[in-house]
Design a protein that fits this description.
By secondary structure, this protein is an alpha/beta fold. Helices cover about 35% and strands about 15% of the residues. The protein has a single domain, classed as Thiamin diphosphate (ThDP)-binding fold, Pyr/PP domains (Rossmann fold, 3-Layer(aba) Sandwich), CATH 3.40.50.970. Strands 2-1-3-4-6-5-7-8 form an 8-stranded mixed sheet, sandwiched between helices. Helix 1 crosses helix 7 and helix 3 packs parallel to helix 5. The longest helix has 21 residues.
């Protein structure tokens, strides 16, 4: 990992300050908490979090206590980007130029319920960072399907498997022509940290989406959280990239796949998750075919 001074930096050299404190209410193996811990190390204490209804609204602990060491505004499911726009405007009026307003929202509050407010904030050019931690379902409210849920996945509202493909919200966001869009995952903390640092130094709307595999929702052992996140990238199911002023560059393992490295079989990823246990061979073939089509598309647009 590269530090602010251009030096090679190991994970042990991450800032020691912790802003996700002891006593939080996260499940064991919770990827959202891992992601937030790395995120706040990159953004630092001069951060204001805006959190809609989601797992993190519970993880921070019950009133009047909190386990987040930065100011936090809890807001309605659909209103996080609008609330963050208000925070950004207030900071501008107060002349506070070194405080970063950050939305920290799940995929339900981003892909579905919050997409209208998000789109509006991007169009207005709001000076904030919007972070979607994507666990591909409405985890906090009972594991219902969201727009981010992949084809074939079990949820409590798609108990025979979802029949539709998931959206690509980062690509929708890119269509707003904002300064910075990136994807990341907890399996590669250096990549996540560096992208957060880069976003912090920019102005205008910035969007980062983090894949966060959820043990109870995806039905895998909590000790496998990071392994499943890494395998998502190695199989090409999740793609790492960043777009700076519209110019897209793949990063890490995804860049190597784009350059010709063979992807690991998608079956390796699917079989580790109980949410795909019911799949028939024709379902797996459909997933493989659509994955091949996605990567063929990437190779064409990246030429």
């Amino acid at each position: 990992m590269v530090s602010d001074r251009g030096e090679i930096m190991a994970i042990k050299d991450l800032p020691e300050e912790e802003y996700v404190l002891k006593g939080h209410a996260a499940c064991p193996g919770c990827p959202a908490t891992i992601a937030l811990r790395i995120t706040l190390k990159a953004l630092g204490k001069k951060t204001i979090l805006v959190i809609p209804a989601c797992c993190s609204a519970v993880i921070q602990s019950l009133y009047p206590k909190t386990s987040f060491g930065v100011p936090t505004l809890n807001i309605a499911f659909e209103a996080s980007a609008a609330a963050a726009s208000g925070v950004a405007s207030a900071l501008k009026i107060l002349g506070e130029k070194d405080i970063t307003p950050v939305v920290w929202a799940g995929d339900g509050g981003s892909y579905d319920i919050g997409i209208q407010a998000l789109s509006g904030a991007l169009e207005r050019g709001t000076d904030f960072i919007y972070i979607c931690y994507n666990n591909q379902m409405y985890s906090n409210t009972g594991i219902q399907r969201s727009g981010a849920t992949p084809y074939g996945a079990w949820t409590t509202t798609t108990w025979t498997g979802k029949k539709e493909r998931q959206k690509e919200l980062a690509e929708i966001v890119m269509a707003h022509h904002i300064p910075y869009v990136a994807t990341a995952t907890i399996a590669y903390p250096e990549d996540l940290y560096n992208k957060m640092k880069k976003a912090k130094e920019m102005k205008g709307p910035r969007y980062i989406e983090i894949l966060t595999p959820c043990p109870p929702g995806w039905r895998f052992d909590m000790s496998k959280t990071v392994e499943i996140a890494r395998l998502a990238v190695e199989t090409g199911s999740w793609v790492l990239y960043e777009a700076i002023n519209g110019k897209v560059e793949f990063t890490g393992q995804s860049k190597r796949i784009l350059e010709g490295k063979e992807r690991k079989p998608i079956e390796d990823w699917l079989k580790m998750q109980g949410r795909f246990r019911h799949l028939k061979q024709e379902d797996i073939e459909k997933i493989k075919r659509e994955l091949d089509e996605k990567w063929e598309y990437y190779r064409k647009v990246m030429k």
